[in-house]
Amino acid sequence: MVLSHANSMTRDDSVASTFASRYVREQLPRYRMPDRSIPREAAYQIINDELMLDGNPRLNLASFVTTWMEPECDKLIMGSINKNYVDMDEYPVTTELQNRCVNMIAHLFNAPIKEDETAIGVGTVGSSEAIMLAGLAFKRKWQNRRKEQGKPCDKPNIVTGANVQVCWEKFARYFEVELKEVKLSEGYYVMDPVKAVEMVDENTICVAAILGSTLTGEFEDVKLLNDLLTEKNKETGWDVPIHVDAASGGFIAPFLYPELEWDFRLPLVKSINVSGHKYGLVYAGVGWVIWRSKKDLPEELIFHINYLGTDQPTFTLNFSKGSSQIIAQYYQLIRLGFEGYKNIMENCKENAAILREGVTATGWFEILSKETGVPLVAFSLKDSSRFTVFDISENLRRFGWIVPAYTMPADAEHVAVLRVVIREDFSRSLSERLVNDILKILRELDARATHAVRVSSATAAQSDDGVVSKKSVLEIERDVVAHWMNAVNKKKTGPC
């Protein structure tokens, strides 16, 4: 006897389209796991629809992080997405690929290693983890030296510029190290090496230099810092080293500025971090930290585990992590080679120059970024009395562009900036399109501000004591916009 299952099917089960099912009518689970399962097609469609409201990664000009890779690399990533990198015994080839990447990057940074030697370094989730590891190595070495000298080792500090990325503040707070910041000044938005060396004392575990400031893309003068610090070390008998945070510039300088001395060619540079997921051209999730030599990484920080198969040395803050990004980094290094990276960086530099010219031609902006450095354009309004860079940033989102607006750090807070990062997938045509959209917004904001001035002239507010006061242009502009939005909202009768 054959039993029919027709009666047991729900109406939703018999409908092929997810949009004809009950799942698109029910409220989505947000804070509690739902009691019942739903079909995979429905789960996919619901989540995919919500993700459409995210910004387009290709138009996210705020981020240094890679947003495009070749289809062949995408296949390698998906093929290894289920591999846990920490299982070195199970995935020995992946471990070998990481070691190859470490050695290639070490040679790129002119590490003093012989052909038959292995470079000292490790892959990380990003530059934040890399900086934590480098900072811990400096702290431990300083503590060991102080203990040998019979001196206290409870007040370590790091000297750096106020332009450092937030991960340095995290390291200082998490691992109880004082962060001594060299303040910025208008027109000089990187660490001053002279002031930095003046702040160094016997408790300084290292001076951190930035090769590619997040604010303006500018390279700090690591060579001058090395020379000044060498003299101070000789005078004081200290042994204060340098760490180079090359998160953004580490995969740029060797190809565009090979004569620039910033890396292991300088004796005091003991470690360097770089983000593979920035100009290393890999999707988010990979960074690298390289040490000058084995003696610069204290042995007691390295853990040895054997419960995954063989003895495995490990020095990471994370344990389990995907193998995909490491494999993708190796793909890029052998696929592009020195020639390919150089061509891409030159393209980025040229497209940044095109954008810089276009922004300058508007007549509204002052360029703050330098031509030498990370290929980005940072610019501020010459006159912010009618509208601000924050207004421009907000309006650019109408066209899909994500361009950050921010103020500079301590002692330069009054300077507000827009910044556009030029990545591999940002072409000349996109640069020209962005300038056109900026011009449209400038005209709109200028016309709106002019209208607001006329309104304010005709409707000056009078206070109780008879004194006439006028609102600022920006206050009037925001009042007009709020009034307009309120009128629009009142006319809404339901979904359209």
Tell me the layout of helices and strands.
Blueprint: H1 40-51, H2 71-79, H3 92-108, E1 120-124, H4 127-148, E2 157-161, H5 166-174, E3 178-182, H6 193-199, E4 204-210, H7 222-236, E5 242-245, H8 253-256, E6 269-275, E7 287-291, E8 303-305, E9 312-314, H9 324-361, E10 365-367, E11 376-381, H10 389-396, E12 405-407, E13 416-421, H11 428-458, E14 461-462, E15 468-469, H12 473-491
Parallel strand pairs: 2-3, 2-4, 4-5, 5-6
Antiparallel strand pairs: 1-7, 6-7, 8-9, 10-11, 11-13, 12-13, 14-15
Shape: globular
Helix content: 25-40%
Reading side by side through the largest sheet, how are the strands ordered? 1-7-6-5-4-2-3
Total DSSP E strands = 15
Low-pLDDT windows of residues? 1-9, 491-496
Order of helices and strands: HHHEHEHEHEHEHEEEEHEEHEEHEEH
Total helices: the number is 12
**Multimeric state of these chains?**
single chain
Rounded Rg = 28 Å
Head-to-tail CA distance between termini: 53 Å
Task: Name the beta content range.
Answer: 5-15%
Largest sheet: 7 strands, mixed
> Could you tell me the mean pLDDT?
89
- Structural class, judged by helices and strands? alpha/beta
